[in-house]
C-alpha cells in the first residue's frame, strides 16, 4: 500500500541536469556527475573560494577541479572574483535545478571534523616538533614522498593516544616521511618506537631528533620491497603507514606492517581519497588481509604541496585478527611507475621548456640559473 | 642494518599480562585481551564510571562489561565507589604492567567526536521533533526496534546535509523506528522523503507529524522480506537504514535500499560495533554489493535503552557504483531468531520468576500487578 503518489522520477536522471553529465564526460572525472555537483555545492557554500580549497573539500585532485572550473567558466556558470564565484546563470542553475539551499557549514569548528582535539600536552609537543619538521630534506617525489604538516602528525599521535594505541605499546612506522614518530615518541607513552624507511636522509634526521630530545626511536634502513628483517617480525602491537597511493604500494606496505604485527594488532592507514572503483579495490584488499575498518575520518591529513591529491587524505584505524600478508607486484608501487607521466615545465625567467619523465621538479635548475617553473603540460604514457 | 637492539619481545604476549588473558577467556569476550584492556583503560581515564558508560566508550555489550567488572572485583583489581574504581592493586597493575599514563580525554568536547555540530537551524529542528519522539509507541524488540535519541536523529540529518545528500535529493528510509525522516523532512531540503516500514504504529505517527507540521513524508507499509514495490525501484538518490544487527538483516535491508537506488547512490548505515570476526563478515558483504565505506564514525548514534549493544552504534556513509543486491536468508533477520535466548525476570514486588523466550519484557505484567522486573539470568539456546 502506497500512501501518496510517486514523484517525477529520480533526480539523477533529469534532463535539466544534463550540464553535469556533459562536464563530467568532458573532464572524464571518475566520480561522474556527483563530482561536478560536489564542486558546485562547495562553491555555493563557500564562495569566493580557491581551486585548492575546492579540491580539499571535495577530496578531488587539483588538476581535475581546475579543468571543471575552466569548463564551467566557459559555460558562464562560474566567474573569477577573488576565487571561484557563481554567475547569475550559475546561481539560477544550482538553486533551481540542483535545489541548493544550505549555505553554512556544519563541520565542527573546534576539531575541524577530526573528532579529537589537542590538549596542552599535545600542543606543547606540536611546538617542540615544528622546528624539526622544517629541517626535512627536499621531498623525493619518485618515492611518492609528500610531507604532512606538523599539525597532521601531532593529530595522528593524539588519535592513537585517544584510542589506547600508544601507552605500553610497541609501535612501528612503515615509512615515516611524515615524521609521525617524533610526536609519538615525545609522549613517552609507548614501550618502543621503530621507524623503517629507505631514505637515509630522513632516518638521520630522526636519529638526531631522538638524540637531541632524549627520546628513544629505533631506526631501520630497509627497502620495503624486501621482506622484513626477522627481528622485526611478529614483534609489534601497532603500526602506522602512509604508503604510495597505488594498490600495489598499499598492499606491500600493509603486508610489511602485518609481518611486524604477527597474528593480530592495530594499523593506522593514511591514504588518498580515491575514485570509487579504485577505493573498492582497496577495500577488497584490506578485507582479504583480515583488517576491519573500525573508523575512517576523511580530510584528517593535510600535506605541504602534493596538489595532485588535493593536499588531503583520510586516516583509517584498522583492527586485524588472523592477519594475512597480501603482496602483489612489488616493483610498480610508486605512482610514477604505474602511470608514467611526461611533464613539461617552462622556466619563468628565460622561457626555456624542460621535459621531465619520472624526474623530480624539485631538483630541476634551468641553464639560466632560475629555479622557478610553471607546468604547462602533462602527458600520460601508456 | 638495525640501529639499536630489539626490546624484550612483543608486549601482547608478556607473562605479567596473563590476567588479561585469563579474564578474556572466562568471559569468552570476542575482543580477547584487547577488550579487557580497553575496559581497564576507560576506567583508569574516567573513574569513577558506571558500567553503562564503560560499555559505551568501549563499544562493548553491557552484559560483557558487567561480567568483566565482577571478575575484576573478585581479583581485587576493581572496587565500587560511586561506580567502578581501581583498587591500589589495580592501579599498580595498569600503571606498571599495562603502562597506562594518560588520564584525560582528547575527544572533541564540542561535537563529541562526531565531527559535525548543529547550527541554530538544526537546533530549532531538534526542539520541534522532541515532543514527537516522546509519542513513539512501545518498542517491539521482536523487530529489533530500539529507539535512537532525538539528538541522534537530528545529528544524522545534519551529517546528511553537510555531505550534500539532502538538497534536491530523493531520500528513502528503509525502516525508520528512529524517526530520522522527521528532522530530514523539516529541513525542506530534499525533493522527496519516503519511509518504508512494517510497523503501522510508526507510520501513523509519521503521517500525523507530516500533517501537523506541514511537511511532505510519503509512507509505505511494506514487509522488507518481500521485494520492493516496482514504483520504488531505481527511484532514489540516497537511503538511510539502521537494520537488525544480524548479517542477514544487514544484507536484506541494504539490498532493499539498493533496489531503491538502482545503479548508484549513497547510503547511510547505522550498525552495531561488532566483534572483529562478525564485522569482517559485514565488511565483506558490503564490499560484494559494491559499496565503499567513505566514512565511518564510531559512537555516532545513541539509543534509549537497548543496553545489549551498549546504547551506541556507528554511522557509515557508503557510496555505491554498479550496485548489486545481496540477499541471504530472509527469515532469520532478527537477533531473537538467530540466537534464541531465554531470559528470566524476577518481579520486584512479589518475587515471582517469569521465563521469556522471544517475548518482549516491555509487555510483561506480573499477576501481582507490578510492571517492574529485574533480569536474573540469560540462556542462549543452540
TrEMBL record, chains A, B:
Entry-linked CDD domains: AdoMet_MTases
Domain N(4)-bis(aminopropyl)spermidine synthase C-terminal residue range list: 124-371
InterPro entries to which the protein is assigned, alphabetical: BpsA, BpsA_C, rRNA_MeTrfase/Polyamine_Synth, SAM-dependent_MTases_sf, WH-like_DNA-bd_sf, WH_DNA-bd_sf
Alphabetical GO biological process terms: polyamine biosynthetic process
A Pfam cross-reference name: BpsA_C
GO MF, one example: transferase activity, transferring alkyl or aryl (other than methyl) groups
Protein name: N(4)-bis(aminopropyl)spermidine synthase C-terminal domain-containing protein
